[in-house]
Design goal:
The protein has three helices and six strands. The protein is of the alpha+beta class.
Length: 135
Amino acid sequence: MDSGADRVWQVLRRFGDIAKWYPAAVTQSAVEDGPPQSTVGSVRAMVPADGNPLRERLLSMDYANRTMSCGFKDSSLPYDDFVLTVKLVSLNDGPRTFIRWTARFDVRPPHDRDAGVKALRDLITGGDASLHHRG
């Protein structure tokens, strides 16, 4: 990404604002009542493009290392124990950033694991492209 990690982090760390930087997949998002949006434990409610609402909890937020993790709290998606981690790494050749996405999850039977992995890969790839465009 051709933006500095600090600039990208300013976008990414605003947990409730995912609809602002990934509007193709999330049409609405907001942090629910409770802790502020960048606080571990906060919950964001989202309306994805398919219209099926879901909620995610912020599991970790590491400002020094520009890393955050979240997991599904309530979702109709066929995944259990879903945790997504995003880490931003500054590259040494100018104001550029490498975005590292990792996810761990189980695909709920009887859903096809390969199809579930592909769907998440597509979602993450789209999010990466959107964040690159926004950052």
